[in-house]
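Appendix C: a fully annotated inverse folding record. The material below is reproduced so that readers can follow the format used throughout the book. The structure is listed first as tokens, followed by the designed sequence.
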């Protein structure tokens, strides 16, 4: 999905800081992600990075009209549906590289949420 743009460990750390509403920490992790990506030299990377920034912005702004603010983090079926749609969009050749990168970031985030729920249920 993320085409090994960045290690999943740092990406998961970014998603976790957002879910825990530690936004200044998320900013630092995002800066590290930008360094890991390096010189953004292609549209997929640009879209992926913009997707991550968008996720952070939506949570930080606390805007009630955004997709993520209305996302029910307890509705596993809906989360799986969104994950499948974002993952599919991240692979469609009909979309531009930028869009595929953006959807890949969103799919990664939803996947992280699903894995978090799964691990909490096992505990």
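Designed amino acids, in order:
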């Amino acid at each position: 999905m993320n085409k090994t743009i960045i290690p999943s460990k740092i990406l998961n750390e970014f998603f976790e800081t957002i879910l825990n509403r530690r936004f200044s920490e998320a900013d630092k992790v995002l800066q590290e992600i930008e360094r890991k990506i390096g010189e953004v030299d292609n549209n997929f990377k640009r879209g992926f990075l913009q997707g991550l920034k968008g996720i952070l912005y939506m949570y930080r702004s606390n805007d009630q009209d955004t997709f993520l603010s209305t996302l029910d983090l307890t509705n596993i079926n809906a989360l799986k549906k969104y994950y499948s749609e974002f993952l599919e969009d991240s692979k469609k050749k009909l979309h531009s590289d930028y869009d595929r990168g953006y959807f890949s970031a969103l799919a990664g985030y939803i996947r992280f949420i699903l894995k978090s729920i799964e691990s909490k249920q096992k505990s």
